[in-house]
Design goal:
Layout (H helix, E strand, L loop, with lengths): L10 E18 L6 E14 L1 E14 L4 E13 L2 E13 L5 E7 L11 E11 L7 E11 L1 H4 L3
Antiparallel strand pairs: 1-2, 1-8, 2-3, 3-4, 4-5, 5-6, 6-7, 7-8
């Protein structure tokens, strides 16, 4: 992930995330190191300032106590503060022994489409088990975003 300079007009957005599909596949079983490699594929429904659907693939390194790390790519399609389009994000995070997941994601440069063309940004996220959800998980995200100045000419 890179740190790009922000324009003066960055905006904050808060969204709740319902995990609507969660598929888990152990790609490499635990060995003598105590680590396994697990792939999870998620479909997520965003509500709040960001409204839409996300499709994510996580690659996780997990310890036997359920803690570990993850890398992720996700495409989100929908509307951000009313501007429609899509973008890709790259995320990294950690899981603790209580199954709480937290981390950071960043919008991949030049991935915005439609009214989200030129979008840049970064976010913090948190996910935790939720027995009342369809998949047993819920999450939230706190996004700071802006539009590259070169993309704003003519708006």
């Amino acid at each position: 992930m890179t740190n790009a300079p922000k324009s003066a007009d960055h905006v904050n957005a808060v969204s709740d995330v319902a995990v609507t599909r969660y598929d888990r596949d152990v790609r490499s079983k635990t060995d003598a190191s105590g680590l396994s490699i697990v792939e999870t594929r998620l479909e997520e429904a965003f509500t709040g300032d960001l409204v839409g659907v996300g499709h994510a693939t996580h690659l996780r390194v997990e310890r036997q106590n359920s803690s570990g790390t993850l890398l992720c790519y996700e495409r989100i399609e929908g509307a951000l503060h009313g501007r429609r389009g899509s973008f890709l994000l790259e995320a990294s995070g950690e899981m603790n022994t209580n199954h709480y997941v937290h981390g950071r994601w960043e919008i991949i440069p030049a991935s915005g489409t439609g009214e989200l063309s030129g979008i840049r940004g970064y976010a913090a996220f948190m996910a935790k088990p939720d027995p009342n959800s369809q998949t047993g998980w819920k999450a939230s995200t706190y996004l700071t975003y802006w539009f590259e100045e070169a993309m704003r000419i003519g708006e």
